[in-house]
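Quick log. Single chain, no ligands specified.
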Amino acid sequence: MTSRAAALAVAVVCALVNLPSVRPGFIHDDHRIIEQNERIRGLERLPQVVSTGYWMPGDVAGPSLYRPITLVTFTLNHSMGGLRPFGYRVVDLLLHVLNCMLVFRLAGRLVPPAAPGALRLRQSLDTPLLAGLLFAVHPAHTEVLGEVVGRAELLAAGGALGSVLAFLAGREAERPRTGMVRSAAPWAWYALSLVLFVIGCLAKENAAVTPALVLVADLLLSDRRPVYVFHLAAFGTLGGFLVLRHAVLSSAGAAAPIPFLDNPIVQWPFLQGRLTALK
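-> predicted structure:
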């Protein structure tokens, strides 16, 4: 099977298996973040979206989260289809399909093709295809697609995966061709990697691990010296995001305590709680 055919197979399987996720209406946090959220009801309110926290003032979670990219996508959804859940859920499904294809692509970079002398089983296995299909149908994604607000996870994952892939493309573009001076193409890929990283962080905080993932990929997959300038820029960008996040949330007021139902380890002392999470 060609690479394009395998990628198409991953996309089709992902869409078909998860198609029922477009049927439900808004549930749980969808009501507060989307249905009752006045900030997303008009493109003219985008400045308010990017300058305030994820939750609305007075909510239990309070000004403790900053996810403007996610809210911007909800604003765009609202501008095109109002508060009809179907459009929001279709976008979430398409994002999941995109992420599955990114996983397929990344698996192809991580696992080299089988050598001619390898075991027949190894030669017959299409590891990238298997990785993409497993990611597409894994039940762990049920919660992410069950609520429209799971889009934050989808955007963060897409930003992180895309950032790693863009960086690896930059490393590949660094290889000299026909003895000529290397072009500026690698730095275009590196710039794209940083942009995707920032998008992921502004969608959900999970993407903050991306610089570490890129560094590990550089150390393990490249046969050349790591691009330390890029890694310094990536961690510096992470620092800038944290400063921006702190500034926005500080202006919104003191963060509310984390509810027990959101994270049960908050009732334990610091060390005991972290060890419990690792158990």
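The two ends are 42 Å apart (CA to CA).
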